[in-house]
């Protein structure tokens, strides 16, 4: 902080000379810039940059609930850390405008309620041409990354199996799903991890029995969680059995969780093949939506495979995997992507993608779900069905 203060005073003198203004005007400019950042994070503001010649070479502050001006050393450890970090970035922003900033756990000593605002302000101060590489266990930082900064950040998870202290490892950003967020928050919260919950819980069809430690085993839920991980990070899909089981389990969940967690939204999502062998067309779908509670949803296409086996998704998958997609053969077979039963044709679909080796059908579907992008018609249609009841 002592070094930063000397640099700040140098910035003050340079500004005063370059702009040919009085010391009071230069101080007002510097103090105003600092307070633009500090007041977004802390309930205090800089009142004076001191005076070196009068043996008052430090920053002075005021608080709404404090009657007198006080110096930097009176601040709490967390307040000092925030002020020092913001001051450091403020002093560097003009000279380091094309830079990677490496910051190691800046949340130490900082209140959780401040952390989120601090990360937003750090992001603003470093400028558009810079990057922030940040290590953190902070709940506040994670929430900012999950919400306000979700389209601007990538996350690398340091997992124990990497053996980073003894073996080289190439670090790559992970695909952030709702399950990954639960893991990250579990690290930050430790024993309080069970308190983290989604805002929207969607019961869908698929294998209901959980794996070890409650892991999701239903392919349907895994696929939907992958597709909507970025666009709807507060939504969690849970596989709950077949058509009838889905109704029963969701009703129990609504009865119990609705009382315990009144702000939790619980949705019921069904495939369109629920007619026990009978044809269910779009008109029947609309009748179902009108005659069932508001929280019920039904897919427009026959099953979730009809979205994954869409030509646009398969072509993206083949491009990513450097495979040759047989579009002619696909078009000859898939004549109605909305109504055709494609779930039983996974082997044929794999052949269209030029897959010569063996690949587990469920693994293939999950891999395809990673290829569904927000700008695709498939994504937009699914999102409308599930989140807007369209």
How do the strands and helices of this protein lay out in sequence?
Layout: H1 2-19, H2 23-38, E1 45-48, E2 60-62, E3 70-71, H3 77-92, E4 100-104, H4 112-126, E5 131-135, H5 139-146, H6 178-189, E6 200-204, H7 219-227, E7 235-239, H8 243-260, E8 265-270, H9 282-291, E9 296-298, H10 305-308, H11 311-321, H12 327-333, H13 346-352, H14 361-369, H15 377-387
Helix pairs in contact: 1-2, 1-3, 2-3, 3-4, 4-5, 7-14
Task: Describe, in plain words, how this protein is organized in 3D.
It is built from 15 helices and nine strands. It has helices at residues 2-19, 23-38, 77-92, 112-126, 139-146, 178-189, 219-227, 243-260, 282-291, 305-308, 311-321, 327-333, 346-352, 361-369, 377-387, and strands at 45-48, 60-62, 70-71, 100-104, 131-135, 200-204, 235-239, 265-270, 296-298. Strands 7-6-8-9 form a four-stranded parallel beta sheet. The longest helix is centred in the N-terminal third of the chain and has 18 residues, at 2-19. α1 (2-19) packs across α2 (23-38), α3 runs parallel beside α4 and α4 (112-126) packs across α5. β8 (265-270), α9 (282-291) and β9 (296-298) form a beta-alpha-beta unit. By secondary structure, the protein is an alpha/beta fold. The protein is elongated. 26% of the residues are buried.
The biggest sheet, with number of strands, parallel, antiparallel or mixed sense and barrel status, is:
4 strands, parallel
What share of the residues lie within helices?
Answer: 40-55%
Taken from the alpha-carbon principal axes, the silhouette is: elongated
Mean pLDDT: 86
State the low-pLDDT regions, or none: 191-195
Number of strands: 9
**Number of helices, counting only DSSP H or I runs of 4 residues or more:** 15
């Amino acid at each position: 902080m002592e070094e930063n203060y000397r640099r700040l005073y140098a910035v003050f003198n340079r500004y005063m000379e370059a702009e040919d203004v009085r010391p009071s005007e230069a101080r007002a400019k510097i103090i105003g810039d600092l307070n633009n950042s500090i007041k977004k994070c802390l309930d205090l503001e800089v009142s004076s940059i001191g005076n070196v010649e009068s043996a008052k070479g430090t920053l002075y502050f005021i608080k709404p609930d404090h009657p007198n001006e006080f110096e930097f050393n009176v601040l709490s450890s967390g307040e000092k850390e925030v002020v020092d970090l913001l001051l450091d970035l403020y002093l560097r922003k003009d000279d380091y405008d094309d830079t990677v900033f490496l910051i190691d756990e800046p949340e130490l000593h900082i209140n959780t309620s401040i952390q989120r605002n601090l990360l937003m302000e750090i992001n603003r101060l470093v400028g558009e041409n810079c990057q922030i590489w940040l290590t953190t266990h902070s709940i506040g930082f994670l929430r900012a990354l999950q919400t306000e900064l979700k389209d601007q950040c990538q996350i690398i998870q340091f997992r124990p199996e990497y053996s980073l202290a003894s073996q080289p490892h190439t670090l790559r950003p992970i695909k952030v799903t709702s399950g990954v967020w639960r893991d990250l928050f579990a690290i930050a919260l430790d024993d309080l991890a069970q308190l983290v919950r989604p805002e929207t819980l969607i019961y869908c069809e698929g294998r209901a029995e959980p794996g070890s430690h409650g892991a999701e085993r239903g392919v349907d839920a895994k696929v939907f969680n992958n597709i909507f991980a970025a666009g709807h990070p507060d939504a969690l899909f849970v596989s709950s059995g077949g058509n009838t089981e889905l109704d029963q389990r969701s009703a129990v969940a609504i009865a119990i969780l609705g009382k315990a967690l009144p702000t939790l939204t619980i949705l019921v999502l069904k495939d369109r093949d629920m007619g026990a062998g009978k044809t269910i067309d779009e008109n029947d779908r609309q009748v179902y939506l009108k005659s069932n509670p508001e929280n019920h949803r039904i897919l427009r296409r026959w099953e979730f495979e009809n979205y994954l086996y869409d030509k646009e998704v398969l072509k993206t998958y083949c491009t990513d995997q450097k495979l040759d997609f047989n579009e002619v053969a696909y078009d000859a077979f898939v004549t109605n992507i909305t109504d055709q039963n494609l779930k039983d044709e996974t082997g044929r679909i794999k052949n269209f993608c030029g897959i010569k080796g063996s690949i587990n059908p469920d693994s293939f579907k999950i891999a395809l779900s990673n290829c569904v992008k927000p700008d695709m018609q498939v994504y937009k249609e699914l999102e409308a069905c599930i989140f807007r009841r369209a």
